[in-house]
Each structure stands twice: as C-alpha cells, then as structure tokens.
Write a sequence for this structure.
C-alpha cells in the first residue's frame, strides 16, 4: 500500500537556508532531495520521467530573478515531472494555480533578518555546472575560488553581488507576502525565525515529526 502523501513547501527569501533545511529533512525522514536548480539543468538536457507519487516536500528558492522556485523531496527515486518544478508559488496567482494540482498539507516559512541575508548572499559563490553553493564565511571551498568536486572555477551570480541584494530581497518580500497570507489564512503556515539554521532546525524537525515518522533522530545530525 502506498504511504500517505505529505505535500509541503518551505518558503523563505534568498539566502535563508531553504536548501540546508531540505537536505536535513531528506536525511531525517528518509526522503530524496531533488533540487529545482538541478532538475531544471537536467531537464534542459533532455526530458524527464513521470510524475512522482509518495511523500514530498518542496522548498521555494530564488532563481536568478530572486523569486521562489521549488525544490522537492520525496520517497523513492523517480524524477520529477516538469509541472512540479516551474517556479511557483512565486506569486499569489501561482499559489492558486498550485491548488489545482495538489492541496498542500504544510507550509514552512523561514524568517531571517535582512542584514543576515545580505551578508550571506554577498559571500555566496556557486559552481555553475552543478549548482553547488559555497559561502566564504562559513562554508568555503577547500581552494579559494575553486569547486571542491570538479576543480572548476566558482562564480558569483550577478544578483548575489552586494549592489543587487537589497533589490532582490525587496522583490521577494513583495511577491511572497500575499502567498504567506494565503497559507496563514488556511491554517497550514508554520513560521520559524532566527539567524542560524542550526537553531531553527530543531523546531522544524519537531514539526515534521508530528506529521511523518523520522528515520534519523535529531541528535544523530
């Protein structure tokens, strides 16, 4: 018998740690983390499989324009279909469109102070081919400016440069506000505030544990 579906989204501004939270959810609850960026890169290279069925959780992350784009976690290894990873819910209209595809059970919102986000984004460099992200303050590469895995150069995205960060965060805030209000009105929004993912994570873990059984105890991280 198929396991009960759990449809969840992790919302947060660029640099809020959505990817880290999703990776920890994957490990703790026996899920596979499929990031939207990686999925889009692979699908541009050619096709994808059928839509997955099973437990899933998505993270709304920021693409080049600074708006959210979901990454998905699920049990099993089937790839995502294109419709599950098209950059929504970026706006209220897209959130309502998502209603026509599935009904969310849970929405996690990460609230991080502006100054913290500005510092994180300005120190962030990426490997273009894989999407691997480094932070020069707390997660630097082994060799400055070089990807640990491939040895290829890292780049700083245009919208991660200090002069672009403020506008990017304002754009996210304006777009996300009605989306957050929608999920709040439905009683499925759970907000977590802080400056460090390590301090926010235990609360996220407790919330998810009330919905699906963990396969890894929090103290094992």
């Amino acid at each position: 018998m198929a396991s009960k579906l759990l449809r969840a989204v992790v919302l947060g501004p660029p640099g809020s740690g959505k990817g880290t939270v999703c990776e920890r959810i994957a490990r703790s609850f026996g899920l596979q983390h499929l990031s939207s960026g990686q999925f889009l890169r692979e699908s541009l290279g050619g096709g994808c499989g059928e839509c997955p069925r099973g437990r899933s959780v998505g993270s709304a992350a920021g693409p080049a324009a600074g708006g959210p784009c979901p990454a998905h976690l699920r049990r099993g290894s089937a790839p995502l279909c294109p419709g599950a990873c098209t950059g929504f819910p970026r706006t209220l209209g897209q959130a309502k469109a998502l209603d026509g595809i599935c009904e969310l059970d849970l929405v996690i919102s990460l609230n991080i102070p502006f100054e913290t986000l500005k510092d994180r984004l300005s120190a962030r460099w990426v490997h273009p081919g894989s999407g691997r992200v480094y932070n020069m303050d707390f997660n630097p590469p082994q060799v400055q400016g070089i990807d640990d895995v491939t040895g290829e150069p890292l780049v700083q995205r245009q919208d991660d440069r200090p002069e672009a960060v403020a506008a990017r965060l304002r754009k996210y805030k304006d777009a996300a506000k009605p989306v957050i209000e929608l999920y709040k009105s439905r009683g499925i929004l759970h907000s977590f505030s802080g400056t460090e993912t390590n301090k926010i994570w235990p609360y996220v873990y407790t919330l998810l544990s009330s919905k699906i059984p963990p396969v890894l105890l929090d103290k094992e991280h």
